[in-house]
Specification:
Length: 304
């Protein structure tokens, strides 16, 4: 049986220290120490893969965490195919009660993930980042006596896009970013590095169901806007007041269910040959439009 600390120490020994580690932020070093290197094919297998954080494996260590650990840090649960008994029942109930992803995998997969350690048929992957609740984001805006400005990222997959978006979000004063637990990139070491310190200042919430979360925001008086080619020209968009902006997947855009929930759609007009923009670029353009309306430039009048 291995504890999270033992396995994390093992990873650090395998990876070694980077020559420029001292020049990096504490946040980036934390992610790099807790991550496990995986083959490129494995890393691209799922947006919330096992390489995103630390591991806990072994029957007693896993049960202890499921009993008293912080459920918000759990990315995914891997259970050995065919496993039965108390351990399997506990893991399945834990995943069901907390709306977590549980994947049954062959023993060889767990052997590979734990470097042939005695995993006893279970492994939990944890994120080293501490996510917040949606209510915390709303409370943050209220504490600042500001209308909420929230970003909702609908199944974004590229960690570089997420990192860049977080950086812009900090620059314009976004109160929080909401991402889904499934089929989307989480906060990883790549995200932290690309964000260049913005993670220390932008709250990120990870939710089970974006549609339900939008209903929660609407109940709190927040207007929801999405992005679509047929939307309103963003240059005439009134983005004042409490609002959330939904940014869709890099290839598919906003999902159908989420699109049905928005109060309005906006678009960025283009006259070139390529009629689409990178998700982080589009987000930056729209957020600075919001910034311009919320923080109009004050012209200084010269006095004699």
């Amino acid at each position: 049986m291995a504890t999270r600390k033992q396995f994390s120490d093992h990873n650090r020994n395998r990876q070694g220290k980077r020559q420029n580690e001292r020049q990096r932020s504490d946040r980036e070093r934390k992610f790099e120490r807790s991550s496990t290197r995986r083959p490129q094919s494995d890393r691209q297998e799922d947006a919330t893969t096992e390489s995103d954080g630390e591991f806990i494996y072994g029957k007693h260590a896993a049960i202890e965490f499921m009993t008293s650990g912080d459920v918000k840090t759990v990315n995914k649960i891997f259970l050995q195919q065919g496993l039965r008994g108390d351990l399997a029942n506990t893991a399945q109930k834990f995943a069901r009660d907390n709306h977590l992803v549980l994947q049954e995998v062959p023993k060889a997969k767990l052997d590979d993930l734990t470097d042939e350690a005695n995993h006893q048929g279970i492994l939990l992957t944890l994120s080293p980042y501490q996510y917040v609740e949606v209510a915390d984001i709303l409370a943050n805006a209220q504490a600042l006596e500001q209308d909420p400005l929230i970003l909702i990222l609908d199944n974004l997959n590229d960690p570089h896009n997420l990192g860049s978006i977080l950086r812009t979000a900090d620059a314009v004063g976004v109160h929080g970013v909401i991402i889904p637990k499934r089929r989307a990139v989480g906060v990883t070491g790549v995200v932290a590095k690309t964000a260049a310190g913005a993670l220390e200042h932008v709250a990120v919430a990870r939710v089970t169901n974006l549609a339900d979360t939008i209903d929660q925001l609407k109940a709190a008086g927040v207007w929801i806007f999405g992005t679509a080619m047929a939307g309103e020209d963003y240059r005439s968009w009134n983005s004042t007041g409490p609002m959330a902006l939904v940014i869709g997947n890099e290839g598919k855009g906003i999902s159908t269910l989420v699109a049905k929930k928005v109060d309005g759609m906006v678009t960025i007009p283009m006259i070139g040959h390529v009629q689409s923009l990178n998700a982080s670029v589009a987000t930056s353009i729209l957020l600075y439009h919001v910034f311009d309306q919320r923080h109009p430039q004050i012209k200084k009048i010269a006095t004699e």
